[in-house]
Structures are given as structure tokens and as C-alpha cells.
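Forum > Structural Biology > Help requests

Title: Can anyone predict the 3D structure of ABC transporter ATP-binding protein?

Hi all, first post here. I have the sequence for ABC transporter ATP-binding protein but no way to get a structure on my laptop. I'd be grateful if someone could post the C-alpha cells.
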Amino acid sequence: MTMTTGAASRAVGFEQVTKAYGDVRAVDGLSLELHPGETVALLGPNGAGKSTTLDLLLGLKQPDSGSVKVFGTSPRQAIVAGRVGAMLQSGGLMEDVSVVELVRLACALHPKPFKVDDVMARAGVSQIADRKVNKLSGGQAQRVRFALATAGDSDLIVLDEPTTGMDVSARQAFWATMREQADQGRTVLFATHYLEEADAIADRVLVLHRGRLLADGTAAEIKAKAGARRVSFDLEGAFDEAALRRLPFLTSIDISGQTVRVQSSDADATVHALYGLGVYPRNLEVAGLGLEQAFVAITEAEEAKQS
Ligand SMILES: Nc1ncnc2c1ncn2[C@@H]1O[C@H](COP(=O)(O)OP(=O)(O)OP(=O)(O)O)[C@@H](O)[C@H]1O
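Reply #1:
Sure, ran it for you. C-alpha cells for ABC transporter ATP-binding protein below:
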């Protein structure tokens, strides 16, 4: 991938990056470029390489080969320059300090800090300013990590499973704030297992599998890539279950009483064949896959290819 000098200084790029632990290739020839103002979700099954990718991006791990550039410099240089804010899953919070003391420290360390009160308010931790950080609930600790990640005017915000442990209103407030950050031209990259969040929030979705990029596009493009559609209908009276199971292009079928739900790689052909069985389906619905089903279809197809 080649970038012009101006674009390179604004972009975040992985070029043919590989990182192995013994025999396990956690990241395997990964190339991608992230742009200002993008909100990007990083998805993948357990062990796909998401955390390793974020660690490489933050300079916490070094690639075995390939290069990681953050705004045209190394991840370390970008962090020292205050261009990166991060919220990691495991990042322990200091013991025995209060929330406001910790946020003050993060602001003091940032080259382009925001006002402590603003950071606290944005992260929704003003009410617990004097609480010791080792006495916080899981969701409160996440909000404090969020405050630390947004203590200054960074250009890239990296979030690993940011909403784990947050209640519904905390999640909504969190994502509204992240949307503002992206609207102001920052790049927001988050790894998540909550596919509905990726669907609702991300402009771009990256699907990792065994360290490789399986899909890269909008949520709608990823759903289309999976190809399959959902068909559901009700049948009256007795019907031939075996014949239903033999319908063409089915990738899955679930028969529950009189209700049948199938997933088909060619819904038109499946529905046509259904009428050919001489049954009269009621409440027939044909719908695209949700991001979660598309994700499962894409990763399972890849597993099947590799085994
Ligand atoms: N320090 C390590 N030593 C050895 N193997 C590791 C190490 N860290 C990660 N791995 C392996 O590398 C692969 C990628 O792990 P990684 O944590 O990046 O995946 P992930 O997508 O973040 O997974 P999860 O969704 O479970 O958090 C896995 O097979 C994991 O077992």
C-alpha cells in the first residue's frame, strides 16, 4: 500500500503485518488503512487476533514482519505526541487514588489535555469523583477508563471491548460521545463481541479470523457478502417435514410447531420450490441477515474452507 506524504500523516496503516506466538500466527499478513473521522469496529471470534492487533497499533507489541504506522510515525512516537487515546480491557487502574485524582493525572500527562471537569462530565464520572478507584463497580471502572482515553485531544481512540459491564444508559451515552469524537475528525477503532453495537455504530466493519482480514466494509456490505437470507413462514395442518428439509439452497432450517425458519443462499429459488411442495405458507417473510448471522456465516464458511 503506498500513501502520499500528506495522507500518510493523517492515516493509520498496517502493511503486511505478522505477529506469531510460537506456532500460532495471531496476526497474519494484515494490511489495512484507517482514515480520520471513521468509526471502525473490529470483529472476530475468540482468538482471531483482535487484542494482538490493538497491541501492535499501540506499540505494546512489535510485529515480526511488516510495519505499523500511526500518522506517519511509529505507534510509540504517536503516543508520546498525544495523538492516541486508548481504553484497554485489562488495563488496571491505580489503587488507592480517587477518580478525580486519576483523571487529573491523565490530563497532566497528555500533551494536549482537555479540562478535568469536562473530561469527567463527558465520561459520566463527575458523581463519583471522590470515590477510590479500587471501590468501583465494573461499569464505573469502564467509565473511568473511558475518561482516561479521552483526557486530551487525541486523533486516534482505540477501545478494546469498551462497553463490557456498562448498563444500557451508560452504553448509549458512551456511543453518543464516541460519535461526537468521530464527527470532530478523530478515528475511533473498537474491538467488540457485541455485533448489534458494531451494526449500529460503525461506519466500517473489519472481520478478523485467524489473524487475517476476512471482510472489510460497511455493515450492509458485510451482510450482503454473507449472501444468505432468512425466510420464515407458518404452515397449517400436517406437512412433510423431510420434504421441507430437502428444499434447495438451505443453509439451515428450524421447524418449531407450525413455524418454519430457514436460512437460504438463494431465497427466490427456495420460496419457489416451497410452493412446488403444494403447501400454502402463511406470514411469509424474507429478510436479509443481521450482522451477527452474517458474521457467523462468513467465519463458518472460512472454517469449512480451511478444514
Ligand atoms: N502472549 C501470548 N502467548 C501465546 N499465545 C498468545 C498470546 N497472546 C495471544 N495468543 C494467541 O494468539 C491468538 C490471538 O489472540 P488475541 O488475544 O489477539 O485474540 P482476540 O481476537 O483478541 O481474542 P478474544 O476475542 O478471545 O479476546 C490466540 O490464538 C491466542 O491464544
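DSSP finds twelve helices and 13 strands in the chain. Residues 1-5 have pLDDT under 50 and may be disordered.
Shout if anything looks off.
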